[in-house]
Model the fold of this input.
Amino acid sequence: MANGRRMLGQTKQARGLIRSLNRAMVRDDKSPRVVEKTAPPHDPTICARCGAVFLRKTWRNDHKLSDEQLERGEWGFCPACLQVSKEEGQGRLLMRGKAVSRDQAAIRRRIRNVAARAAKTQPQRRIVSIESTDGGLDVLTTSQKLAHRLGHELKKLFGGRVTYTWNDDGTLFATWDYQAPKGAAHRNQARTFRTRSGARA
Ligand SMILES: [Zn+2]
Done:
């Protein structure tokens, strides 16, 4: 009996070791998408950096934990915090064009606003970094959806052209070409209309 119990204990220990080895290996993995698929975190896990909680298969900021859930909860890091700390992302938006450096302050403000609004409902969608490049800006995001959103919102507010390239691994590379403000294009159009109606009159 005693032997049997010891064997059982050893088995449990071995299983625990294998589990922690697996976790360590997953942490070294450079692909966050694969991490999410192959190693779901302990339920519940509380992110030690941002406080997000993994419960019922989702990371949320507003999960309410019962005393019992708190008791069996484990500390860890959510995928977004891991990506930010490794400076990795699933989305990238490269901004270039004459007007980018001129309107840089307003562009950065817009990026922060869009990201803050996204974070309210989707805490895993975050900015990893915003870097100035040669006459442009390079934004890395944890989620391809946020990079897509930023491209869309910047074009809507300022004008210019956006292109999106989705890669096989689920990442998105977007570019925003911003040569002249939206207003300038509109004013040119308005002049054209006036000339035409003048010609007709
Ligand atoms: Zn976190």
Observations:
- The chain has two domains: 2-83, 89-184.
- The chain is about 50% helix and 20% strand.
- Residues 89-184 form one domain.
